[in-house]
Amino acid sequence: MKKGDHLFLVDGSGFIFRAFHALPPLTRKSDGLPVGAVSGFCNMLWKLLIDARDTSVGVTPTHFAVIFDYSARTFRKEIYDAYKANRQAPPEELVPQFGLIREATRAFNLPCIETEGFEADDIIATYARQAEAAGADVTIVSSDKDLMQLVTSMVHMYDSMKDKQIGIPDVVEKWGVPPEKMIDLQAMVGDSVDNVPGIPGIGPKTAAQLLEEFGDLDQLLARAGEIKQVKRRENIVANADLARLSRRLVSLRTDVPLDLDLGALVLEPQDGPKLIAFLKAMEFTTLTRRVATACDCNADEIEPAALKIEWGEAARGPDLDAGAPAPADTGEAAAEAPANPPKTPVARGTGAATPAELAGSRIEAFGRSSLDVSRYVTIRDVEVLDDWIRAARETGLVGFDTETNSLDPMQAELVGFSLAIADNTENPSGLDVRAAYVPLIHKTGVGDLLGGGMAENQIPTREALARLKPLLEDPSVLKVAQNLKFDYLVMKRHGITVESYDDTMLMSYVLEAGKASHGMDSLSERWLNHKPIAFKDVAGSGKAGVTFDYVGIDKATAYAAEDADVTLRLWMVLKPQLAAAGLTTVYERLERPLVSVLALMEERGITIDRQILSRLSGELAQKAAAFEDEIYQLAGERFTIGSPKQLGDILFGKMGLPGGAKTKTGQWSTSASVLEDLAATGHELPRKIVDWRQLTKLKSTYTDALPGYVHPETRRVHTSYSLASTTTGRLSSSEPNLQNIPVRTAEGRKIRTAFISTPGHKLVSADYSQIELRVLAHVADIPQLRQAFSDGIDIHAMTASEMFGVPVEGMPGEVRRRAKAINFGIIYGISAFGLANQLGIERSEASDYIKKYFERFPGIRDYMESTKNFARENGYVETIFGRRAHYPEIKSSNPSVRAFNERASINAPIQGSAADIIRRAMVRMEPALGNAGLSARMLLQVHDELIFEVEDEEIERTLPVIISTMEHAAMPAISMKVPLRVDARAASNWDEAH
Helix, strand or coil for residue 862? Predict the structure, then answer.
């Protein structure tokens, strides 16, 4: 190799996992062999070769090699045995593809290089430095941060997924240090994926600042006493040895013994027949056709290659998370996954080779199996409980459910709990599930006043929980529950923090949001063909109903043990479906981590000022009374305004207003939309009724009701969040619902003033600015919107200027208001009729606005049409993070139903992506605040807003951490084409902070 040559080094292991995680599962049609990663790898490699040989688009390689990890055991394990200890084994469906990918590399006529005892990165480093010494240029095809230490003026990186070159300036921009300091930065920051310890609490930005100040890691450690921040100084001094160890782990070797020298890496033309034979064996029809055309071969004349499929030890490959992207550079280390991921036990004996096959076999097997309620056990002594707990540990998997006397987890008493275990030792299929119930405080009769008392032979609660606590907190045992957040919070109140868990409700939600119910009874009937015992059948209903602590223990055992049994069986059925549908990441990153986050927020609650609410109730009552007098005068008589029948008779019977339509019961419809339409056409009475309804609803729902939600012990209001109640991924809240307090009305803002901070604290409201418009600019790729957001321009003024030709400076408020209505209306699929009503203009004028809008921003129309077409073809749409929102009625023969589903499908990827971003921010927020040594507590989430309670003296330090975590929440999974912006401020009440 000589000056002028150019060596391409492909991170083959990174390619494998990008291909595997980025693409949906794919199996070979002839035998079901999983080949999704092979397909993605081949397509990426082919594109890279085609682009690299095109002299019009960039550099042309003269030498080329694909580098792989030989195995997980390398010299770094000898240095630090816990290195990469967090990594899971590769997914079962990926194992046979490792050998096939190596075969693919050879079929492409490319060197396939791996060296035992070393990682691919070390081999890449060795070749890169040798080529550089020979005067050649080097391109490393990877985006892995670990390789950035190699970048020089002659060595560049190339991210093929983003089509982005990475040179010295890019490394500096990303990490704040030049490539030669990346080793020291990584040594300080550590790596949770590779289990490189680093210095706890030091994030990338802090590390970069320290390196700029002290020069390098050695100087920093030698002069640590000069660090002004006491906590940081003590932390660095205490962890100096860890930092030095970490530097050895992250430093790439450049002396790997190589079987092939640089001269052997000359890029040869592809052998068309050899490559086509491999592709035909894989049944990759489209790529076969492309290669045949490029290589001028007749694919029909070439026989498929005979390939050996490697399993087990022969199928060498890196760990599950190899090549995973780096955490977002938010100023603190941010893990994309839990530090102690739970085991994922799988029932053996299925014979399934792919996730789809496993899912299919599980559905069939559990659909035919039956639950035997008579086999359920009541555990009444600690020795038997110990036996069950021991069996759960040995299995590594346990179904868990709590029974309480209330649906409020913050006040419910724990009546008992149930366990379910899949006895794989007796029945390898996993179908043999045994379950038991542990009663704790069941009572007899109907209470002490009528002769009732505590039932006999129950384990004391404290003693039972002392046995249960180590199991529930053991990260090596996977706990499976249905709607786990309730159980999590109940156990948290008893001093137990559940670790390592799965939630069958959330699994179903990820798989079928918008398509089906996710309640346990519904799931059981759908997947297990089993109708569970109804709660009313054991506890009664109505006046005859009792709380669960008064249910007889025999009945309670049948009901509660069945819940745990059903839940564990549902897990068996649903878990492989996540992998088969390519939705595991959605569940693992967006759903499961939020359980503990929301439970903690619910437990914290928020303080309200009852006096403010009482005063507001009086004001609202007076305003409502004034509206009532006006309504009676306009109607010409007194009537019950809250009665739909009487109101309909007045509006459409007596007054003969247009647009009346009767419901199935024969009454006139007086829905909000009907009244709004009448008000928009100038009728005063419907407008007054709409206003009256809003006031009375605010009074009854909030100012009157909120004091009743104050917890008797904490003196705070504890709302309950639902993770699985919307199609798009938005959270909802209840008891009380804090999501629907209007923010644009004076009355709604006054209600928010009643939410206050405690003494010595402030409430901080952090709100995403126009996040849905930013997501629209990203997904629809609208140049004008992207540029405006990047430049910080007023987006509504820019839209008005684009549409109406009005300069931004000095723009009339009315013109901007119209553009704002269109901007937001387009997201929700607004019609000309809807826009006309909103702006108070003629429908024809509104139609012209919308037409002009699409002319100025044609990309939005393209996005809307392509999204509708995708939804019609697949029955669902996806957010930018892969969440699916199903719209099964989008092909309905009913025009109004079809139109509604089309509008919803257009909005869902935008609203859902925004919801996913704030979910990611919430998951990262607690670690970010903790790493910064801050005591701020996240209390509420309301759509695009997070509310915190912060100590007065910490506000200045807390705001930047909150803002940075939220603004970088999409990273590293998605690099947004427009910047996210967060407005955050502190005040003594919610309204002032917003």
Answer: helix
Q: Is the pLDDT of residue 256 over 60?
A: yes
Query: What phi-psi label fits residue 791: left (phi over 0), alpha (psi between -120 and 50 degrees) or beta?
Result: alpha
- Preceding omega of 736 cis (within 30 degrees of 0): yes
Q: How far apart are CA 426 and CA 787, in angstroms?
A: 64
Q: What pLDDT is stored for residue 22 in this prediction?
A: 53
Cα distance between residue 103 and residue 38, in whole Å: 10
d(CA 647, CA 643): 6
What residues are paired with 763 via a beta bridge? 949, 987
Cβ atoms of 308 and 76 closer than 8 Å: no
Give the integer Cα–Cα distance in Å for 373 and 538.
14
Confidence band (pLDDT; 50, 70, 90) for 354?
A: low
Is the C-alpha dihedral spanning 306, 311, 316, 317 positive or negative? positive
pLDDT band at 676 (very low <50, low <70, confident <90, very high): confident
**CA-based nearest residue to 188, from 236, 237, 251:** 236
Please write the tens of the pLDDT for every residue from 889-899: 999 999 889 98
Q: What is the DSSP-derived secondary structure letter of residue 741?
A: -
Question: Among 573, 572, 595, which Cα is nearest to 421's?
Answer: 572
Beta bridge partners of 473: none
Mean pLDDT of 594-600: 96
Among left, alpha and beta (phi > 0; psi -120 to 50; other), residue 367 is: alpha
* Spatial separation of the C-alpha atoms in residues 507 and 575, rounded to whole Å: 7
Q: Is the peptide bond before 972 cis (omega within 30 degrees of 0)?
A: yes
Pairing of strands 501-503, 607-608: unpaired
Q: How high is the pLDDT of residue 782? A: 86
Helix boundaries (H) for 493-546: 504-512, 520-523, 535-539
Running DSSP on this structure, what letter comes out for residue 331? S
Q: Quickly count: other Cβ atoms within 10 Å of residue 17's Cβ.
A: 23
The pLDDT of residue 730 is 93
Domains in the chain, CATH or no CATH each: 6-167+253-312 (3.40.50.1010), 361-581 (3.30.420.10), 607-715 (1.20.1060.10), 772-912 (1.10.150.20)
Of 990, 968, 868, nearest to 917 by C-alpha is 968
Q: How far apart are CA 824 and CA 73, in angstroms?
A: 54
pLDDT tens digit sequence for 473-523: 998 889 999 999 999 999 999 999 999 899 999 999 999 999 989 999 999
Contact 481, 472 (CB under 8 A): no
Amino acid at the residue 182: M
CA dihedral angle for residue 19, residue 20, residue 23, residue 25, rounded to 10 degrees: 140
Distance separating alpha carbons of residues 925 and 334, to the nearest angstrom: 9
CA distances from 866 to 107, 282, 863, 873, 906 (A): 37, 31, 5, 11, 9
What is residue 653's DSSP assignment? I
DSSP string, 969-990: TTTTT---SS---EEEEEESBH
Q: Which two tokens stand for residue 589?
A: 């990153």
What confidence tens digit (pLDDT) does each residue in 226-243 have? 988 888 888 899 899 999
pLDDT of residue 340: 37
User: What residues have CB less than 8 Å from 507, skipping those under 6 apart?
Assistant: 570, 571, 574, 575, 577, 578, 587
- What is the per-residue pLDDT for 768? 96
Confidence of residue 558 (pLDDT cuts 50, 70, 90): very high
CA torsion through residues 344, 350, 351, 357, sign: negative
User: Residue 882: how many CA atoms within 13 Å on its side-chain side?
Assistant: 21
278: part of which helix (H) or strand (E)? helix 272-282
